[in-house]
Amino acid sequence: MTNESIPQGVDAALLDKLSYAILTAVRPNHLQDQTVQYGGPDASFHEDRDTCYSRLIIALAQNDEWRERLARDGHFEHCVFLAEALECHTWLPGCYLAGIFAYINPSNNVLPRSPAQKRRQAFIRERWNTPYIMPRHISALSTLVVATRDNLPDWDSNEELAELTTDVSRVLKLLPGQKKFMVYFGLDQALFDAALSSVQGLYDDLCRMIENPGTLQTDNGSLES
């Protein structure tokens, strides 16, 4: 979604109300007691509900005006809460939440590492440590690649990079054997190929970073593809 994709003349106040309504729909009243509850549509965390929510938020966050609304209305704080509430097997929403982190705290390799950065790195690594990839995971996988690339400047240890590379390599080896199955059950082949290419590109860059630390860093701290 881009700024130009929002029709001209749409009442900003109406969009403000929509932002508030979205958050109200996904954040139960009992969330205020900081008790994480699972199960049922009104639970603190519900996988299907919060997968849809996180996909919506990452799309809206790509628009400048919506990103301001999300920050102002507490959506980003709620995403942080969801990330902390995730159970280990809830892989899908976690990938979208990892992508949202880029809009909460953009990477800056000039700043020293902080506990928040370390938690974000650990969260991303947990997403790569998955034993299987299902058809509905493919679009989220591409989001995870983007989130990982955004955080690469913060991985300043070869040991950390090696561990991340091992996890990415594991997923990369899983994908080719899943292609026929996924396409047979309706996944668009172009979507699969794009995801596979993005994971392969990330893996290649990680290997080069380990072999030649810092050589792929550009002026803005991102990696050359």
Describe it.
It contains 9 helices and no strands. It has 2 domains: 95 residues; 117 residues. By secondary structure, the chain is mostly helical. The longest helix has 27 residues.
The structural class is mainly alpha
Number of strands: 0
For the termini, the CA-CA separation is 23 Å
Shape: globular
User: What is the N-to-C succession of helices and strands?
Assistant: HHHHHHHHH
Mean pLDDT: 79
* Share of residues in helices: 55-70%
Low-pLDDT segments: 107-112, 217-222
Percentage of residues in strands: under 5%
Largest sheet: none
What is the C-alpha radius of gyration, as a whole number of Å?
18 Å
Number of individual domains: 2
Per DSSP, the total helix count is: 9
Short summary of the structure?
This protein is an all-alpha fold and 225 residues long. The chain contains nine helices and no strands.
Describe the secondary-structure layout:
Elements: H1 12-26, H2 47-60, H3 64-73, H4 75-85, H5 91-104, H6 115-128, H7 138-151, H8 158-184, H9 189-211
Helix pairs in contact: 1-3, 2-5, 4-5, 5-6, 5-7, 6-7, 7-9, 8-9
Comma- or semicolon-separated keywords:
225 residues, globular, mainly alpha, 63% helix, 2 domains
